[in-house]
Structures are given as structure tokens and as C-alpha cells.
Amino acid sequence: MKKIFLPVVLLGFILISCGTKLDEHGKHVFRYNEAAGISSLDPAFAKDLANIWACNQLFSGLVRLDENLLIEPAIAKKWEISEDGLCYTFTLRNDVFFHSHEVFGNKARTVNAYDFEYSFNRIVDPELASPGLWVFGQVEKSGGKYAFEALNDSVFRIRLSQPYTPFLGILAMQYCSVVPREAVRFYKEEFRQNPVGTGPFRMKLWKEGVKLVFVKNENYYEQIDGQRLPFLDAVSITFLADKQAAFLHFIQGKLDFMSGIDASYKDEILTKRGSLKPAYQNKIELITQPYLNTEYLGILIDKNNLDNPLRHKMIRQAINYGFDRIKMMKFLRNNIGEPGLKGMIPKGLPSYHQDASYGYNYDPEKARNLLKEAGYTNGKGLPEIVLSTNAEYLDLCEYIQHSLGEIGISIRIEVNPAASLRELKAQAKLPFFRASWIADYPDAENYLSMFYSRNFCPAGPNYTHFNNESFDRLYENALEETNEYRRFKMYSAMDSLVMEEAPVVVLYYDQVLRFVQPNIKDLGSNPVNLLDLRTTKKIN
Measured between alpha carbons, how far is 118 from 200 in angstroms, rounded to an integer? Predict the structure, then answer.
């Protein structure tokens, strides 16, 4: 095993001790920081954004999403879906290779349909315990075996148990990347540190918690105008946990790219309108667009929870009317994102309804009238309501606490560690909690599944225990509807119903925010905030 890691360690010493040595030799190295850290480079565990970004450079799947969330070919050059919506047949390219590796005799090996059969069966293997197991929940099973089938080297088939329109988009997720069985069997549990894929970059160095380096895959299959991708020579990732320190590194030119913004420096770089301050306008580039992330407050409306005043719909509606989202976004978020005045479906999805008549504007008088109708005039007699959050969103919750206090709703804020908040929410132990939902795939069904009665947590994502027969019927019908217009109408009807019953308080629809050095070209952006470096260039 030592012969594998010796050159890697040597390269790591050069990169770490000499900073941007590759740049000094004319190499084009894209540098970014990952404050959250990376836990695995195995796509079977690409659950959070940090892992997803890294895996996207190393691996490929059957299909992928373009910048407009449209599905386009990747390793599959074409596909057919049967008329009944149950059978998906993919024809693969014959010029895609796994990264050169000693398990292939220090050569690259052609990808075939049997590799996908192996990779997908690996995801559903309970012994692996992949968090991506759910992506194949609609695949037909017989005798415990999933309906993944390689018909020959170039044709791969999947059969579903029932029609499921979002399925093709789900296949674009990193969980569905192809991996070689030879490398997985060679490394076993250490495959997380020694990934072998088909992506535009290949693994070179990982000193965990310090630096991660990918280098150009010279055998990558894609070309533009006869030039083979990628244009970059390497990707270098650091792991500074202090976001303000990472910001200073970016301003000093030591990083090429920074995603999102932290409260510690947002007022330094952005105006209240969300644009770059004059001091930075000619020094860096700001890329923004809608992000498929809805930030909200969730309300547990389980009928068995009799002591919770929030089981009354009028109280939930009063909370929705009781604070000014537009003002909140201006002063606490520098207008990064859109106020949550509509439903759960965020801006950026094709089914988002900009002119929807449902949702909540700021109307304190209406909120007071709802409290009065519920029997709590000016909030008199209404028990104190506990809102659980983490430290990152404390300012938003304090703003809401103050606003609701003015109409007679007393809120006590309970701050939890982020991991504890997620666990308590998943166990339905929080009556009122702050949460967010980032889309896993580009279909509004992703958001509406949060309110389907069969998805009660902890088994599913219905953290509010919302249960409505009309909603369930619409949801089930939409899963089988192949006509986009009719499906979107069903989505809108479901979203409207959820807003009427108010098991959630939509705060805002988030925004992709990317800060880029001026010599970085064609980085692009997309509503799922996926980092795609295939066509990115670095101009010296």
C-alpha cells in the first residue's frame, strides 16, 4: 500500500509548504475553502453540500442537470421511457473511462452497463448503509432484488414499481454515480479516501482537515470545440473552519471562489440591497441566482399533542401574518433571498407560482383578529410558545419573537446545537422549530413530500405530522401525471392547501451567492448550488 501513497505525500508537502506552487509553474489551480469539512469522497455518502461538491469533480452518472435544471446526457447518450412510465432504458457512451489505477493495471478501463448495475445495487445494500438508499425507493423489487439490469455492455435498464415522474432528475444526484467494483473491493472502507471515478478530475492528495487536491483527468470524455475538458489543471481545497479567516484569504487572493456569506463579514462586503459595496466592485465578481432552499419555521400539529396551542389553525395563521418578512430580509439578510410570501415551493423551480394568490403578507391587524377568534384577545390566556433554533438563526428568531410579542403572542427562544436540533426535529419532539429544505432534485414534489401523511418522521420528512386526505390524493395523482401542465396545477393546489392549514411559516427563499476572483471565467451557477468545474477557466 505504501507505494500508492508515497508520491501523494510528496506532492502534498510541496503544495502545503509552498502555497500556490502549481500556479507559479503556470498551472491553473482552482482554490476554494470548505469550512464544513468533507467526511467522504465516496458518492454513496454524498449527503451534504461539501461532499457533493467534491464528488461532482470525481464522478459521473447516467445524466446530469444543466444550469437551468434541465436533464441532459452524461454517460448515457440517450434514454427511452416506456409509455406506462415504468421502464427506463439507457444507452451508454463507449468512450468513458474510469481513472487510471493499479487495479486496472495502471490503465484506464471503459465504463459499461454492468458497472451501473453494480453501483446501484451497492447503494441499496443495507450493509453499506448509504444515506442515498431512498433514491431507489420507487424501483421494482422482487425477492429483495432491485430491478437494475445490464442488458449488455452498453444498455442499462431500470424498472419502477409505479410511475414516478421525478425519477430521471433523481438519477442526476451524486448518489447515482458509477464506481468500479475493482477499486471498491480493493479499498473496502478506505474507498472514501481513495476514490476512483470517471469525473473531470482524479484524486491526488487528501490530508484530512488540511488540504485536498484533485488533478485533471487526462482521459475525461467531454470536449468543447475539439478541446478536451477540463480546462483547469487542478483543484485545491482547504479546510479553514473560521469563515472570517477564509473571507480574508479570499480578499487577499489566496482563494479563487467563496460561496455564501457569514454574518461576521456580510456588512463589510454587501450593501443593504445585497450588491457589492463600491470598494469591492472592481476587485471581485458577485454571481447570484435563486437557490432551491426554503427556510421556514415548522409546527408540529399532531392531534395527540393536546397541550400545544399551535394545534389551533388560527394561532398558526396569526403567526404567519404577524411579522414583516420584507423588513426582515432587508435588515438581517441584506436582501439575500426572496421574502417567503408564497408557498413552500421556492423560486427557481419551473412550478414556482410568482402570482399565486396564497401565502402570507404582513398584516398585524388580521393576526390580532385571528387571535380574538381563537379566544385569545390580545394574546390574553395564550400560553408561552417555545421556538427551537440554532445559534446561526438566532437573529431571525429574535426578530420574529419581538414582532409577535407586539400582537400578544409570547415566544420563548430555545437555542440548540445544530445536530441536536436536527435530531429532535426528526424524532417529532419539537412543537415549533426553525428548519430549511434544500432540494435534492429539481421537482416540486421534493418539497411537497414533506406533507404527505405516509412520510411521517422519523421514517420520512414530514416533520410537522401534517395529515390531510385531499392533499394525499393530489400528491399520489401527481406522481403518476406525465403532463407537465396538469402536474404543475396539482403542485399549486397542494401548496395552497398547505398554506391554508399553516403547518409551516415560510421565512424566505434562499439565494445562491458566489464571490469569484476576476481571473476565473465560466464558473457559472445553478439553482441547486452545485459546483461544476468542467468548463471553468483560470486566466493568469
Answer: 22
Residue 129, CA distances (Å) to 45, 125, 140, 160 in order: 9, 7, 20, 22
371: enclosing H helix or E strand: helix 364-373
* Burial of 225 (C-beta count, 10 Å sphere; 0-12/13-18/19+): exposed
Encode pLDDT of 237-276 as tens digits: 999 999 999 999 999 999 999 999 888 888 899 998 889 9
The answer regarding whether domain 2-238+517-538 maps to CATH 3.40.190.10 reads: yes
Q: Which residues of the chain have pLDDT under 70?
A: 1-25, 305-306
* Residue 476 neighbours by CB distance under 10 Å: 13
Sorted by where each begins, the domain ranges of the chain are: 2-238+517-538, 291-512
Fold type of domain 291-512? Dipeptide-binding Protein; domain 3 (3.10.105)
Integer-rounded Cα radius of gyration of the chain: 25
**E strands in 260-375:** 285-299, 338-339
Tell me, letter by letter, the H, E, C secondary structure of 187-214: HHHHHHCCCCCCCCEEEEEEECCCEEEE
CA distance 407 to 364: 7
Going by C-alpha positions, the residue among 228, 1, 206, 9 that lies closest to residue 97 is 228
Strands 29-33, 234-238: parallel, antiparallel or unpaired by DSSP?
parallel
C-alpha to C-alpha distance for 369 and 385, rounded to whole angstroms: 19
